[in-house]
Amino acid sequence: MSEKPHIVRIVADEARHQYYRSHCSRAELPKPRIYQDEIGVEFGDGRFIPYADLGYHDAVGFFRLSEATELTSQAAPFAAAGRLIDCGQIVVTTGIAQRLTHEEIRDVLQRHSGGDFGAYGQFYDLDVDDAMLLDEVGQSLPPGLVNKVNTLTGLNPIVSAYTVREHAVWVITEAGEKRTTLLLYAGAAD
Question: What is the pTM assigned to this prediction?
């Protein structure tokens, strides 16, 4: 699992918090954007900061790491933990509890939170473009790309599909709920 700086999660959490708690419009949220081949965040004032140079401190909000070296980025613990997705409360259905071991459940949760979507691909291997991030595609996207967009924006569910032994398992993190559900899927996971 790659342990890259997960400021992505901080931005998604902040967007989700503002959207679901304040009922503000999507236009007011920090927006993931692609500018000069770098994924970053565009703010309401037009500032664009690539994720690689984006820091966060709850006293000042988002800032450029390269311009504010005296501030410690509070995203560091998320990078160390290797998590892109905050699973929140974990709900394990009876079907999963009866068929998977505790270690298998822990493994799929770690993979999911780290951006390994199982049959739907890996976060860092999936290429998105600005139209996808701005929801201007006009066509349905494959599940992996939907997951990457939803991980970046924090506003819609993220669904991973795994096969554990012969069992098809879905892991679903619900936007705005801080809850992840593991369930058996009736069809094939891959």
Answer: 0.86
